[in-house]
Amino acid sequence: MPYSARFKDHLANPRNAGELLDANAVAEETNPVCGDRLRLMLRVLDGRIEAARFLAYGCAPTIACGSVLAEMIEGMKVEEAAQITRQEIVRTLDGLPSRKQHAAALAIETLRAALNVMNENE
Questions:
Q1: DSSP summary character for residue 18
Q2: How is 41-77 classified by DSSP, letter by letter?
Q3: Cβ distance 94 to 4 under 8 Å?
Q4: Is this prediction's pTM over 0.70?
Q5: CATH code: domain of residue 91
Q6: Res. 121 pLDDT band, cuts 50 70 90
Q7: What φ, ψ does residue 107 adopt, rounded to 5°?
Q8: Angle between helices 60-73 and 5-12 (to 10 degrees)
Q9: CB neighbours (10 Å) of residue 21?
Q10: 7 and 14 in contact (C-beta within 8 Å)?
Q11: Torsion angle defined by CA atoms of residues 73, 81, 110 and 44, in that order, rounded to the nearest 10 degrees
């Protein structure tokens, strides 16, 4: 399966990449098989994700999934963001090869970890 135009756009022009200095929820997860890492930083206020930034280390799908995730959740209520699935990330990228869907799973795991950190800080 070739990568979609949307995938290539997120890879060439990642959305919300970089540090978020005033984040109040930060998580970093690693895929133990391939070593890819994704760091997600959120600024949450009154139950809404005001800002989301990511840093990705690894394959191109990890970068694209981090970009899609950060773009998707910015402005969402925390409860809505908690319902996002790996399949939604894959769909938003117009598909991923099955051997690369681990990147979408890593994005969801990192999101869940960041939301757990936020809940612990409340």
A1: S
A2: EEEEETTEEEEEEEEEESSHHHHHHHHHHHHHHTT-B
A3: yes
A4: yes
A5: 3.90.1010.10
A6: low
A7: -60, -45
A8: 90
A9: 8
A10: no
A11: 70
Q: In this structure, are strands 48-57 and 25-30 parallel, antiparallel, or unpaired? A: unpaired
Amino acid 1 reads M
- Give the type of residue at 18: G
Domain range spanning residue 73? 5-121
How many structural domains does the chain have? 1
Per the structure block, which two tokens stand in for 115?
Answer: 């939301």
Using a pLDDT cut of 70, give the percent of the chain over it: 98
Query: What span, in angstroms and rounded, lies between the C-alpha atoms of 103 and 108?
Result: 9
Question: Taking Cα atoms as reference points, which of 51, 29, 36 lies closest to residue 111?
Answer: 29
**Residue type at 93 in one-letter notation:** L
